[in-house]
Amino acid sequence: MSASLSRPTQRVAVLALTMSAALVAAGCTSNDPATTPAASTQSAAGNAASDNDAPGKKVVIGFSGPAADHGWLAAINNSALAEAKKYSDVELKAAEGTNDASAQIAQIETFINDKVDAIVLLPTDGAALTEIATKAMQAGIPVINVDREFSSPFAARATVLGDNYGMGVSAGTYACKLVKDKSLTNPVIAEIAGIDALPLTQDRSKGFADALKACNQTVDNRVAAEFTVESGEKQASNLLQAAPKIDILWNHDDDQGVGVMAALDQANRHEMAFIGGAGSANAMRWIKEGKMEATVIYPPTQAADGIKLARLVAQGKGISDLVQVEVPRRVVLNAPVVNKANVDQYLPLGFES
């Protein structure tokens, strides 16, 4: 999704979990939206196979997340707070969101001194927070790492990630489907990336390019923005000037997509199939209106999933739908495509840009 601005990820196999309604955004196991399961089939009650969600031992969880200066980041924080409220056996100590690594280190120090039972941490910078997270682990406090990975495997008990490479693969696979369905000959495919220096952007672009190879296509025009509305509009305007005709456009981030759409409106350029990334509510409304073809989910529920895992780890439980008796060390969420066929199922989970 979205634009976590320092999110390195590794490309690993998706582990699909049916843990809560928060995981609906990760529930599709196919890039074909027609095969996406209805959101209603994934119960808000969570694990139906056991009593994992029944009240257990009281646990105190410390949560430290980013400053909510972006729609996706605000959704990350809000979903974590909302998830904790579902459990009478969870006391959540939520630190103020920050983009300052030093301030976040101080927050984790406080959690350690308070002897919380578990910590859920979306670090401002994974490398910068690795040492303090390792200290918490050494103090016997399990750390659940969210979205931006630490630089040491000893810094976290479990890690919850979105799939940036998978986002690109989903977008590229859908683009190939459009090429076939529309019988496009020599289509012009364009891409508006996020910040090129970030591994997450590189992963998304590589996944997109790799998937396009399946239908013998490449990206013809590409620009990079900065995950902001302003940069999205500026770079989209540059792209439109360079490419008088575009058949398919993939924009990495729905927040910067607000600016992209503004540029498309201003230039009256709606000839292309516009694919977004992250899964914002406004993108889904555009899909319903016919102004946008699709968007690819980057789940804003990762911290909520972190809360659920922290509770299970602190209570000595596993995940009921797995044979393994302990919580996995790594969970990578899926990146399904949302289009007009399934948008009503996903719209309630969309975040506001």
From TrEMBL:
GO MF annotations, alphabetized: carbohydrate binding
Keywords, ordered alphabetically: Signal
Pfam families registered for this protein in UniProt: Peripla_BP_4 (PF13407)
All residue ranges annotated as the Periplasmic binding protein domain in the record: 61-317
Major subcellular location class: other
Highest taxon in the source lineage: Bacteria
Family matches, as InterPro entries: Peripla_BP_I, SBP_2_dom
Leader sequence segment: 1-25
Cellular-component GO terms for this entry: cell envelope
SUPFAM superfamilies reported for this sequence: Periplasmic binding protein-like I
Compositionally biased spans, kind Low complexity: 33-52
Region called Disordered, residue ranges: 32-52
Locations listed in the record: Cell envelope
Record family assignment: Belongs to the bacterial solute-binding protein 2 family.
Protein's name according to its UniProt entry: Sugar ABC transporter substrate-binding protein
